[in-house]
Specification:
The structure holds 2 protein chains of 2 kinds.
Chain A (H helix, E strand, L loop, with lengths): L7 H12 L4 H38 L15 H10 L11 H18 L17 H22 L3 H32 L4 H7 L4 H4 L1 H15 L10 H4 L9 H26 L12 H25 L5 H29 L7 H42 L2
Helix pairs in contact in A: 1-2, 2-11, 2-12, 3-11, 4-5, 4-11, 5-6, 6-7, 6-9, 6-13, 9-11, 11-12, 13-14
Chain B lengths: L1 H30 L3 H21 L3 H26 L14 H19 L18 H10 L5 H22 L7
Helix pairs in contact in B: 1-2, 2-3
Classes of the chains: A mainly alpha, B mainly alpha.
């Protein structure tokens, strides 16, 4: 834990504090607090612009222009939205459990901000280099689930409760492929620390294990509760799901945390599969690393937006089928397969034979999976088509 | 050495706060009348346990505590409560006739543990400072699968869990022609 925000800037700052005659430990704690405050402020300001980006992206996908009235390119629009949300009346529906009701959006936002503690922004700029960073991701995700349950239950609304039920079912199921998908970079890099995983990516892991990337992308979309897996707030069925009874800034917190959660996961996709902050010159000039990382994270964010606004929502039973009948067995098989290939090619680590071998074996695995799926689908189709003539001929 | 003592006191302060929160929330778990509130207080208690693990340099176990106990078990508790209780404001007598018996047992266990641990020097010892190269996760993994250490209990536990899994599937499985 000593490494919390330990870099030249914070060292200099705590040096200043000790120069004023402050106790070194107290100076360290104070510096860490300032760093956390600064990080959260920057993240929240980023969040404001994410609202604008999201609206622009969805507008482009739907062949519209999006916000364009206030300021250049409508950039001031989110601030107007915030003012509107803040001055709204504070409404409590009948029968709400006030404490839990008010706590839910706070925990929701907290679960997202906690993720930034392990976010590897650049080689020297990160909160804390946990040696269990990958698992930390999953643990913090469960706090998000908890907040959704709290919101759904305390609102005293059937639709909110149904949304919460669905979310729990989805989160508990999709956590399994997600953990396994995260174990693949862990196996390749030999560490569960996110920073170590970034350091180990001389070749981006999306090249070595494209299937692991796809698995993580699918399970992360489910974890984020975004389309096509946004059953928890399915507008056409549940109106808004767990946040149906929230208004004003409490709703704003749910909305903002969803966007920020997506951006954060875009960042984790970048860290696990796109080499994180790595790029030309990033190791000598850490500020370049920050630049690369934010670009990659934005691409990841855009990827989630692309999926969300392209695919329609799928039914809850289909979603469970997809998870338990396909993703879970697939992820376990892939994990064993990647571990075996990695061990077989262990002598060639760092050479092109390893990279090409990993890529080709992954493509082979994907091809075999597709072949099995195709065969099963054909069998199902034949079963259905084989039944039909009998029904027709049976007068 | 002076610096070491300072860390010790900081750790003691953190321990004191965490322990107080844990005990308080544990009492709330058994005394609060609303079942959902009890489950939420239970989560606070479990989170306190995770904090204690983290202060003991057991980061892996702390995170696992959150993932398993809060992320799965406590949420399933809440799920079961929400599914089985019809009325939301579900209030009833929180205590039954045997409440004093459990209170006595709790006090006796607490007293017994205090008495047993009185002579143990581990209570006043500072945790050894671990360098950044100390790989606690790797050591744990090696301990779990090495034949000299815990591979047999580990495997037995796995088989037990597998048996429970198969049993759950067997119970929940709907045979064809059976409604």
């Amino acid at each position: 834990m000593d490494s919390f925000f330990s870099n030249p800037v914070t060292d200099w700052l705590s040096g200043v504090f000790t120069g004023w005659g402050m106790n070194p430990d107290a100076a360290h704690v104070l510096t860490a607090f300032i760093a956390i405050l600064l990080l959260i402020t920057v993240v929240m300001v980023l969040d404001i612009f994410l609202v604008w980006t999201e609206r622009k992206i969805v507008a482009r996908f739907q062949d519209r222009i999006g916000p364009n009235r206030l300021g250049p390119f409508g950039l001031i629009q989110p601030f107007a939205d915030i003012i509107k949300l803040i001055i709204k009346e504070n409404i409590y529906p009948k029968g709400v459990d006030k404490i839990v009701y008010n706590l839910a959006p706070v925990i929701m936002m907290m679960s997202v901000l906690l993720l930034w503690a392990v976010f590897p922004l650049s080689p020297i700029l990160f909160g804390v280099d946990l040696n269990v960073g990958v698992l930390y991701l999953i643990g913090v995700g469960s706090l998000g689930t908890l907040s959704i349950i709290m919101a759904g239950w305390s609102s005293n609304n059937k639709y909110a409760l149904l949304g919460a039920f669905r979310q729990v079912a989805v989160m508990i199921s999709y956590e399994i492929p997600m953990v396994v998908a995260l174990l693949i970079p862990t196996i390749l890099s030999g560490s569960m620390g996110i920073n170590d995983i970034v350091w180990a990516q001389d070749v981006w892991y999306i090249v070595l294990v494209p299937l692991g990337f796809i698995l993580f992308l699918i399970s992360a979309t489910a974890e984020l509760g975004r389309a096509p897996f946004d059953l928890t707030e399915a507008e056409s069925e549940l109106i808004a799901g767990h946040h149906i009874e929230y208004s004003g800034m409490k709703f704003g917190l749910f909305y903002a945390s969803e966007l920020l959660h997506t951006f954060t996961f875009g960042g984790f996709i970048a860290a696990f599969f796109f080499g994180g902050w790595r790029g030309p010159g990033a190791e000598t000039y850490p500020i370049l690393g920050l630049f690369y990382f934010l670009i990659k994270a934005t691409i990841g964010y855009w990827l989630f937006g692309w999926i969300k606004y392209t695919l329609p929502r799928i039914r809850i039973d289909k979603m469970m089928d997809l998870n338990w009948k396909f993703l879970v067995p697939f992820s376990f098989a892939l994990l064993v397969f990647v571990a075996l290939t990695n061990a077989l090619l262990a002598d060639f680590v760092g050479s092109w034979i390893y990279w090409v071998g990993m890529l080709l074996s992954n493509l082979l695995f994907g091809w075999v999976t597709m072949e099995i799926l195709r065969r099963r689908a054909r069998g199902e189709r034949e079963k259905v088509e084989g039944v039909q003539p009998v029904a027709e001929g049976g007068h | 050495m002076e610096c070491r003592e300072k860390i010790m006191t900081a750790m003691q302060i953190i321990f004191g706060i965490t322990a107080a929160v844990m005990v308080g929330s544990a009492i709330m778990v058994v005394t609060t009348k609303n079942l959902i509130h009890a489950a939420l207080w239970l989560i606070v208690t479990l989170f306190g346990a995770a904090v204690l693990f983290a202060t003991l340099n057991a980061g892996f176990i702390a995170v696992i505590q959150v993932v398993v106990y809060i992320g799965a078990i406590a949420i399933l508790f809440i799920f079961a409560i929400m599914l089985t209780r019809r009325e939301k404001g579900d209030t009833g007598p929180g205590l039954n006739r045997g409440w004093w018996l459990s209170a006595v047992i709790a006090v006796v266990v607490f007293g017994g543990l205090t008495w047993l641990l009185q002579g143990w020097d581990g209570l006043s010892k500072a945790a050894p400072a671990l360098g950044p190269s100390f790989d606690s996760v790797g050591l744990l993994a090696e301990t779990l699968v090495s034949p000299e250490a815990f591979v047999l209990p580990f495997e037995v536990a796995s088989v037990l869990l597998l048996a429970a899994l198969v049993g759950a599937v067997y119970i929940a499985f709907q045979r064809k022609g059976e409604e």
